[in-house]
Write a structure and sequence with these properties.
Layout (H helix, E strand, L loop, with lengths): L12 H17 L8 H10 L18 H18 L6 H21 L3 H4 L7 H9 L6 H10 L6 H15 L16
């Protein structure tokens, strides 16, 4: 059992949603040169505060401080990963956090809540290459540059740069809408 084990909680929908979101996040974020299992990834998430009790959009940060909160989340995930003997980049930490929050809140029925609308979408090579090929927002060069760096190798600055472009392109739409260009589902 992990030190942040959730089995003391009665099995209900929140624990069910937490386990699913953690599983999806771990599968998506585990990449070549940074492989880890679902149990290990879930321990990292739970150690960073992503537990079954994080279940209401009101518990998420206000839109104006979401980037600062996300930086703290990534730092915490990186620290927890290190305790597990893993070396996470900000890109891997972001993917773990973003897929988890997507599963819990965006796809969990709260997609239009103000605090959910500003959550960072998962970034990967499939999305970046499509954004570049379609010259989304007129930023083809930026998307290509980010794809060349590779999302799994992003440091904090590179990750935040990509999110800033996502925010520009999204305008008043929720940030998750950038995923209309993600072709990983095909």
């Amino acid at each position: 059992m992990s030190r942040h084990d959730d089995t003391t909680q009665p099995y209900g929908i929140e624990l069910h949603k937490h386990r699913f979101a953690a599983w999806a996040a771990c599968r998506a974020a585990s990449v070549v040169n940074c492989r880890f299992g679902v149990e290990q990834g879930r321990t990292i998430l739970e150690g960073s505060g992503f537990t079954a009790s994080l279940s209401r959009p009101e518990q998420l940060p206000e839109p104006q401080v979401v980037d600062e909160a996300h930086r703290r989340w990534r730092t915490s995930v990186i620290r927890e990963a290190k305790e597990q003997g893993l070396s996470f980049t900000h890109g891997v930490a972001a993917k773990l956090v973003n897929i988890y929050l997507k599963g819990r809140f965006v796809c969990g029925g709260s997609h239009d809540h103000p605090r959910v609308r500003c959550l960072h979408p998962p970034i990967d090579g499939v999305l970046l290459r499509t954004l570049a090929a379609r010259n989304v927002g007129g930023y083809a060069g930026e998307w290509k540059r980010a794809a060349k760096v590779r999302w799994s190798k992003f440091d904090s600055r590179e990750y935040e740069r990509v999110i800033a472009f996502v925010r520009r392109v999204s305008g008043n739409s929720p940030l998750w809408t950038i995923e209309e260009h993600w072709r990983g589902n095909q």
